[in-house]
Amino acid sequence: MPTPRNPASKSSSWLPLTVAAILLVATPVVIVLLGRSQRAAIPEPTAPAPVEAAVDSVDAGAPDAAAETAPPGDPETAAESPGERDTLAEVEAFLQRSREARPLRAEELSRIKRATVLVFSTRANGSGFVLRHGGKAYVATNFHVAHDTAGRPRPGLEIVLDSGTPSQLALDAEVVAADRETDLALLGVQRLPSGREALPLAARDNVFETQPVVIAGFPFGSLLERKRDTPSPTISTGTVSSLRYDDTARLVRVQLDADLNPGNSGGPVLDYGGDVVGVAVEEVTATSISFMIPVSALTRLLTEPRADRRASTPRANPVPPSPGRWPGRAEPAPAVPKPDWLVRVQGWQRPAMDRPLALGEEMKERGRLQLRSVLTGLTVLPAAGRAVVLNASDSEVVEIDLADLRSVKTAPLPRAFEMSVSPSGKSIYVAGKTTVGAQDASAIYRLNAALATVGSVTIPNQLLRLAGDDSGLVFVVQPRERGILAVSMAQRRVVVEASSLYSGSYVHLFPDQNRLYAGTVGLSPGDFHCVLKTLTSRGKLESYDSRYHGDYPLGDEFAISPDGRYLFAYRGPVLRLGGSKESDLAYVASLPPFASIAFSPHHSVFFVAFTDGTVAAYSMDDFSKPLRSYHIGWVLHEMILDPAHEQIVGLATPPSESEVERRYPRRERKAGNLLAFSYAP
Fold it and tell me: Of 206, 203, 252, which is closest to residue 75 (Cα–Cα)?
């Protein structure tokens, strides 16, 4: 007979389960409350921060006080023990995940818009935002928004509060702290209304991939006309897609999947809790890839006592860099022993480009060679009256007799698509597509001036552009991977990587073949880099960029004059090249944007082809106006100067009516017509 169940025993069996469920739910709440109580118990620092000291010293008429003040450091971490930091980090991570579950409310968006300001001067416009530190209010923005190309604060710097509303207010601003390395600046604003909305900074760099973010700013702020209504701030959303660290494991850039435009620079990037996690800085044009500066860099600018990070007084020009050093950058690391593949090319002497050319009043076509549709790499060879071009459609290198414009020799190569000739013309490098196993790879072929193959190497990397010297060292640019690879033809392998260079860059060797210049592609702002045949202490090729941050349309395709004095950007700017980092890549003039350029090693005249079907001749001594202009009715996308036959020869297509191509001409690879035009009287 079964034993009857006791009702009391049934209720008592559920009691332990009920208690366990209550404890499971209550535990996270207790942890959060304990974390908040611990945070509230952290004492506030009493010593002044350096930026406040800088502002106070200006008011008191003591301009050097800012550089002498040494604040205690980060107020968030100064009084925390390791146990407290760990607890706070866990609690903040929990709160972060909790508040990301919902978008910002209308009142939070209104607060963000009121704290976002339009920053403009006589030369540049951008975005910024109000923050508070040590009881004082500042406006954070990018260094390149607030400074000119020489690193001086821009004249007429102002901000607009409540832009685009009836209550908008323009106020004078001045730079009180700046760091060129991180591209950040802090502005002091006179007569800033008390109680002005300010955005809180996140305590740490706690961003992660796929995290949603909110971006505020003024896209296309450069179109502002102050006599008309100024624009309202634009609020957009995006996600964190990648975290970029330096060699010391410090977060230096955060990649965003977000649509930013010129004018967004300096605007705040916030998490869904309304805290600033970064500052918008740049975007890759024609993509949704953008970048922000992490909030930790802004915190360091506010708290770290480094004199070279800030101006000693808002009205003083920045201290010029000492030899071998730029503001905010570490001293150059000692060089490591040079490996056997790193060979300096000897024997180059600067040519005297001083011979004039006799120019006629008009330019007439004198010859035409029709090849297959895709040509590139048109280059003059040392042998008089000879040139080479890559016919990618037929995968062959073609040697051309310039006297009567005819093909005299071909060198077939498998799946060839890109060609580069060393500055001396003695070595020709051709890239071809291949596979290694099931993976796409690249083959590099080395030819001599007689088009005989003298070496080849296969690398497991996809290749976009290349430039090689006479020692067999080839610099390779990849289409998607950042960095430039150096390939040794003798060792048949990649021997080193140059860091801090963007994918897709155009590259050309300096005439002495001992340094390489690269122009970024698709970045805003664009830039030029120099890569030296010198290794850093970490075994990478040493490199540096120009001193300009958005003041000129730099980047993309370019050419270097045979005497090595000038770099001509196809977008127009002309930069002087020097022998040191301080004197290199210095802006001197601007030409109209062009499609191609051609020099003679010994003549003082060069030719520039424009996208409207005209060609102009300029003097190397005066870029202000052309010596002659000719209408030829063709766009020459690659061009060479042949003084022996008094002609220019180029890869020609009909003029394009595209507005984008007129404003930003790029080298096209469609030309199948090789045309020669006589410039002689």
Answer: 203
